[in-house]
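Note to self: user wants both folds in one dump. Writing first protein now.
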Amino acid sequence: MNSSHKKNAIKSDTQTSFPAVGDSLIVLPGISDPNTGIPLGGYQGRVTEVELGKSGQVTVTFQWDSLSLKNMPASAIRFCEEEGLDWTRMCLYASEIAPAVPRDRQRDVDKIIERLTAEHAWDYLGEQGQRIQQVLAGIIEDDENEGEVFERWYEHLQTTLKMPFEAEITEDEDHGPLHAGQHVRVQSFEEFDDYQYGILVNIKAGGRSFVFPLCDLEVVDKKSSQYNVVDDYATWFSNR
């Protein structure tokens, strides 16, 4: 949502009328986000930067306060993540904002940004990111929760994948007979106990049985529902 409207230059009579860094501001009625189209009237934030152009045009960059962030539609945050825009800040002309009384403290803002960032961590991947987020709903991905995150994936994969299925190896092994591009048959899940390689499966290739990381496999039938399930997990694993 970090963008500005293109309109005629706005001139100010004196520099003393400029908003200052740290001031609380409110967006005036009738102002909308030019990217997402959501109405911004009533949203508040704190000034982080004020810029005066050569023609006298004043633009103000500010960070949304915690109440505004809580009320921001999830669809708007997803759009910004997909487009690489900063949804925590906005840049508007000085004529589009007015002074306001602070409604929270900076630590409240930091806390809600942390929560929303976790909830929308995978939105940049579009539809696939939304599927990944659904699998991990309610879990904060950090080192302390690593076991819980893998357990959630393990349960999801056990529920959605139907064994056996045909797959192709996507990564070469450092040692051994298996190689990228080789077709294998995935037979069953192996007991999960290793975060380094992730969830393991039992496969058959060339008449032999192996234990292999699921993240290094791709379902052969790209039109099957199984394809997205494995691809979502592999994408998450490689980008976690």
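First done. Writing the second protein, which came from a different request thread.
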Amino acid sequence: MSQLKKIKEMIFPRDVLVGHNASEQIAELCDRIVHGNALIVEDKITRKILGNKVTRLLRKGGYTVKQIDISSATLKEVKKVESFSRKNKINFLLSVGGGTVIDVTKMAAYNLSKPFISVPTAASHDGIASPGASLKNKKGSASIPAVAPLAVVADTSVIVKAPYRMLASGCADVISNLSALKDWQLAHRLKNEEYSSYAAALSETAAKTIIENADYIKPNEEESAWIGAKTMIVSGVAMSVAGNSRPTSGAEHMFSHMLDKIAPGKAMHGEQCGVGAIMMMYLHGEDWRLIRDTLKKIGAPTNAKELGIPKKKIIEALMHAQEIRPERYTILGEKGLTKEAAIKVAKTTEVI
């Protein structure tokens, strides 16, 4: 009998700190897992919110620390961070900010083969702990394989002060795991795609935690930031287990990325994924109303009007969503929805 030779690498955060004033422990955490010169990647706003504080704490702990501001999630900004890191002989990076800052840091760290620590100032999507980055280009946005953070420090006393819309969007992103999992299971059955029950269980647990605690997720409640941040980190770990974004990204994410392309700047990523999940769960014959009602409870959009996107753009995105990742099989099939089918699902689910 031949021996099966199979190797799979799974890279997880080694240390996760979530809670009130968690950033106060940043120097002690770094002492455990990294060494050398540090670079804080931030933007002009997050520098004031937390970046300067993290810099002071690390310098007090004996680290040489540099700071750099970035302005957008683009390859140009990634290259800027890489160049600055090489010039200043940086040993590890810390992303202090929201999704844009984290994605740029993640990609730069991957290209530099340097560790990075994720220090989110808002919980707006599951990129907090995931191994993938979303970068903007002329065609919209694209998800690119990168590296998971070596550690995550989620200070809920900071996250709760961010605009509540960001947290609601992040929670909607996690809820959309349920439709992504249905797509993954479908691809496993019909295309024999590799499927990880462990990754799926983590993803489902994160989504159900949001659903079960929806009544407690509201503005100005630090408990809300705690619930949201934890589930987003678990979603990120699910992707690390799978080795790809399958546990958390299906047709609803393609729908969101297509909206970024044809109706840019209208709504947040997680908001679009939440609305997409309503429609994709309907197509799967699942309980789409549960998704819709949960989104309503947490104050996330459930229709085109609340997204601020014209109805015709919703239909267009539904018809062309599969073009975002044609190699990834989902409920949309290989050719996507006809205009009639797109109108029917959007109207039935009251998205338009």
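Dump finished. Worth passing along: The chain has two domains: 15-159, 164-348.
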